[in-house]
Structure formats: structure tokens, C-alpha cells
Amino acid sequence: MLSIPVEMKKISLTMMDADAQRAALTLARMTILHPVEDSQNEQQLPEFPATPYFDVYHSLYTKFSKITGFVTEVFREPTDFTQLVTLEQLQEMDAQLKSLWALVSNVEEQLRQNHEKMLSTRQLIKSLHKFDSLDLDLSRLKRSSRFLKIMVGTVPSVNFSRLEKALSLAEFMIRTFYTGEGVQHVVMIGSSQQQTDVHELLKSADFRELVIPEEFSGNPSRLRLDLNNQLSDLEIEIKALNKKSSELLSSIMPTLQKSKDLLILAKPYASLATVLKGQGGLVFMQGWIPADSEKIIKKQLENELQFPFHMKLNNPEIKELESVPSLLRHSWIFKPFQSLVSNFGIPNYAEVDPTVLFSFSYILMFGMMFGDVGHGAVIALGSLIFWKRFPSVTIIAVLAGLSSIGFGFVYGSLFGYEHILTPLWMSPMHDPVLVLLLALVWGAFFLVISNLLAIRNYLVVGLTQQAFYSGKGIAGLLFYLAALFSGYQLMKHGQFGVLEMLSLFLPMAVIMRYQWKQTSAGFFEKALVVLIETLEQIISSVSGTLSFLRVAAFSLNHIALAAAVFSIAAMMGTTGHWITIVLGNIFIIVLEGAIVAIQCLRLEYYEGFSRFFSGKGKAFEPLKL
After folding, report:
1. Which residues of 334-363 are buried (b: 16+ CB within 10 A; e: fewer)?
2. At 34, which helix (H) or strand (E)?
3. Structural contact between residues 277 and 41, judged by C-beta atoms closer than 8 angstroms
4. Nearest in space to 404 (alpha carbons), one of 349, 364, 441
5. Average model confidence (pLDDT) for the chain?
């Protein structure tokens, strides 16, 4: 049930510079090398032979990406994955794409400008309809003379009447030429001498001045005709440019296909620009490989490389464990759960991979909380509809549904009915206390397993003191077991004596002493930190266990919801009764099912993973084509 990331070995490869690209291509086809930079041999190996290659590759890739942003055709994959791409080939193709990009960008820029003009023209036509009632040259509205002031703008309809009266006293004429939603578009004409007084009136009436576009010069009807003609011309020009662009892109597709082939084959060597180091004719690189791939790598390199090479493999040292990438291998049934684990984080190489444990416990808890034969069958069968589109979600849903069916038989529940099936063990409705006790037992078992995994992880990375004396170590585990024992004694026998006190005090004293030694501060600060850590340990133990009461709570809630549905249905007629039953069951399956799925995930993440799983590992990212 427990697993760890795939065992890794550090590979050190020394070879001739002439074979470096061939080696990169070979390793990329195998997808089993996670390259890493070597910071220890910078003085002995100061050269980066792949850097010039990477620079040209990056330049070519950038131009290719720009051009293909306008391409809709699908590229085929290369037929020969053993072909080496020289620096000269990349440079030649880079020069070709530079010329092609000049042609493509010129056409696309013209298209962009014309589209902008079209949008602008359409906006002008849309704005022009507000001026349709004005039978005059609109350019006159943009000019005020020495003696005459002309203003165009909007004013809220509720203020128009008051403003009109006030302006008439100031010898200004105001006329509405367009009425919108709650506002009126107006033109005002008056003496320039009254401008200061009028300004205060306009401000109090919430007048907003309109800027008339420069293009509005002439009668509105004539303007509309001109703008529509411009729009037609632009549409014709855009159509011609689209045709030109399509023909151009079609003509250069063979070149683009060749570029893609070169980029795919050149990528492995270019990716090693910061990894590959050398001097003279020798190059050196390091990386991590699965331990079981040692022989096949050596055999492949012997077959592909033209010159002798030296390959050295080492097991990771303890100080390297945090930097070793984690490769997780699981069968198809566990793959979806691996994704949920990855949402929390990647397991550190030295940590236990919780995927399998998570899979079983998650599915088990879902069944405990949502035990119903009918509802489980609907989830399991209904999710199959989404198999092709969401295969991962379907696998989880089917397993959750089967678990729900299993616990449905245990509880004797079928679509909320508790009297049709005979429970194989017990019914939460008739024995809620037992359900609550079992939830606490499950929670205690879950937390003990989590603590044991944390101890194992500490020991593997050499954190012996933390494994023995910390709150997540053996001392913390003993304290938790003592708390369970003391709680049992108190609840069952009503006693809390010397044995119980010692069993709690001794591990807590060890934890406090460890925290005291680990804290570097003054006496009072140390005391405060130790006190807080001690309280946190106690609270965490209690709250973590009580969190699992939700397992029982949701199994009881499931029954309560079904009872509520039946109560409502009982008040209906025959037809209404069954409609209520069906809709109520759909409501329970969708809403409560989703809530239970989230609650199970929460328990896994915050009561399980957070106790033993850092999630700070590095994913295995192999060199690939």
C-alpha cells in the first residue's frame, strides 16, 4: 500500500564534443534523463559548447512561433528522429525565416491596420446616428467665434427643464437633438461674454461636454454615405489581404514544416546549453536517471556514439536527497489519484509517495460518509458517460460509487430507504453512537499512520533527533497514544491516575526539552515558544481526531436528508410523491455527493498530508524531443 518515488541514480557522462549532440538526441528519445547543472567543475570545465547552438535555436524558435501564430494547418511529426541538426542548418533556416517573417508581418500589419480602421469607422457610424436630426455641417459645432459660443454635450433629463430656464435668463439657447436613456444630447448657443456664469450653471446641472470626432465634417446624411463607402472599401481590401496572406502562408508551409522538423531534432542539444560543460574536445554532463535504466542507457550510447565515452553512476548522497527529482509510476487505476496528490505537492525523493494510501483511504471514507446502494450505483454508472472526455474523473467516480454501494449494504440503505435492505452490520440511523465511536477510531488510526510515515521520512533523510524527539516524531506519537489511552480510561472507567499522568507528561517533557534546545532566543522568549508549541501539540492532537467526526456526521446527515425528502413527499399526492422522491434523490446525489468528496479531500490534505508530506519535491522532467 505504501510506495516511494522510483529509485534514482546520478549519471555523469564524459564524451567527445563531436558526440554531444548525438548523445542528447539519443537520451531525448529514451526520455529517461533529468539533466542537472554541475556547479562543482566550473574552473576545470569553463566552456559551454552548446550555448551558441542554443542562441540560434532560440532565435529560430521565436521567428517560427511568430509566423505559425497565423497558420491554421497542422504540422506532421518528423519521420526520422536520428537526424542531427548542425549549427549551420539552424543559421540558414533562421535567415530564411527572418525574410519570411518580413513578408508575413507586412501583410498582417496591413490587415491589423485595416481592421482597426474598420472598427473605428463602425464606431463613427454608430455615433453618427445621434446627430441625424441636425441638418447642418457638423464641423460648425466644433468652432466658436469671438462673439458666439457653441457647446455640445449631455445633461440628465431630470435637470434639462431647470437648465433650460436658467440658460434663457443668461441669453443662451439650448436645444435637444437626441434623447438617450436618462440623458439628453443638447447643443447650446450664446454670447461668449456670458461663458463664466454659464459654466457654473452647466456644472450644477451635471452637463458633460461631448467631443465631436474630427471625421464629422459635413451633413450627417452625407457623412453616413461617405463612412459606409469607406467601410465597403475596407472590407474589399481586407478580403484581398486575407487571400494574399493565405496564399503566402500556403507557399511557405514546406519551409515551416522543415523548420519544425529542425526545431524538434535540435531541441535536446539546445536544452543542455547550461548543463553541458567542457574544455577542448571533451564535454561533461550530469543528470538523474531511474536506477533500472542503467544498462539500456549504456547499450544505446554504445550503439549511437562514434567515439569512446565514460559513464559513471552514483547513488544519491543524503545531502542531495532534496534535489533528486521524484518519478512516480502507478498503474492506470491510481493515476487519477496521483493528480490529486500532485495538487498538494510533489513528494520529495526521500518521502513516502502517498498516492496508493490516499487512493484507498479516500475511497473508503467516501463510502463511509455516503453509504447508499442506490446512490452509489447512480454515481458509478452515471459517471461512465464521461469516460471519453474525463477518464480520470470517471475512474475516481466509479470507485467512489462502488464504495458507496458497499457501505450501502453495510448500512442497509437504498435510495434513502432504510427498511428495504437488511444491514450487513449496522444502521447509522439506529446506532448513531457506534457510528461516532467508529469515526473516532478511524481518525485515530489515520493519524497514527500519518505519524509513523513522518518518523520514517525523518529517519531516511538523517533527521534522527527530529524523528525521536519532535512533536511529529516518536515522542509526539507516544504522547498521542497516551492521550488516547487516558481518554479511554477516563470515559470507560472514570479514572485518571498516576499511570495516565506519567504517560502524558513524559513524552510531552521530551518534546518540550527538544523545542527548548532547538530555539535560539532569550529565556523568556524560549519559554513562550515552548509553551506555544506544547499547546499546539495538544490542540492538534485533539482537533485532528475530532475532525474525523465529520465521517460519522455525514453518514447521519445522509439519512437526515433522505428523511426530509420522504417527509415532503408524504404531503404530496401520488404523482407529486414520486416526483419529490426522484428530485430529492437527485439533489442528495449531486449536492451531498460533491460536499462529501470535498470533505474527504480536506481530511486527506490537512489531517494526513500536512503531518508527513512536505510536497516540496521536484518533478522528474526528462530530456525529450
Report:
1. bebbbebbeebebbbbbbbbbbbbbbebbb
2. strand 34-36
3. yes
4. 364
5. 88
Dist. CA 483–CA 443, nearest whole Å: 14
Q: What average pLDDT does this structure show over 533-558?
A: 86
SS3 assignment, position 273? coil
385 grid coordinates: 458517460
What is the distance, to the nearest Å, from the Cα of residue 394 to the centroid of all Cα atoms in its chain?
20
Q: What phi, psi does 596 have (nearest 5°)?
A: -65, -40
Of 14, 610, 36, the residue nearest 325 (C-alpha): 36
Cell numbers 532565435 correspond to what residue?
A: 59
Q: Which of 295-299, 349-353, 510-514 has the highest mean pLDDT?
A: 295-299
Mean pLDDT score, 67-73: 86
| The pLDDT of residue 196 is above 80 | no
Q: Report residue 85 CA to chain centroid gap.
A: 36
Backbone angles phi and psi of 155, in degrees to 5: -145, 140
What is the rounded distance in angstroms from the CA atom of residue 606 to the CA atom of residue 548? 11
Q: Which of 334, 350, 283, 296 is nearest to 32 (CA)?
A: 296
What is the model's pTM? 0.77
The model's confidence at residue 210, banded by pLDDT at 50, 70 and 90, is: confident
Burial letters for 471-492: b for 16+ Cβ neighbours within 10 Å, e otherwise?
bbbbbbbbbbebbbebbebeee
Residue with cell 457623412: 223
279: helix, strand or coil:
strand
Residue 15 has pLDDT above 70, yes or no: yes
Cell of 572: 404530496
- Grid coordinates given for 220: 450627417
Query: Which among 50, 55, 92, 83 has a CA at the least distance from the CA of 259?
Result: 92
Rounded to the nearest 10 degrees, how much is the dihedral formed by the CA atoms of 298, 302, 303, 305?
120
The residue whose grid cell reads 522543415 is 258
C-alpha atoms less than 13 angstroms from C-alpha of 206 in its C-beta half-sphere = 10
Mean pLDDT of 135-145: 76
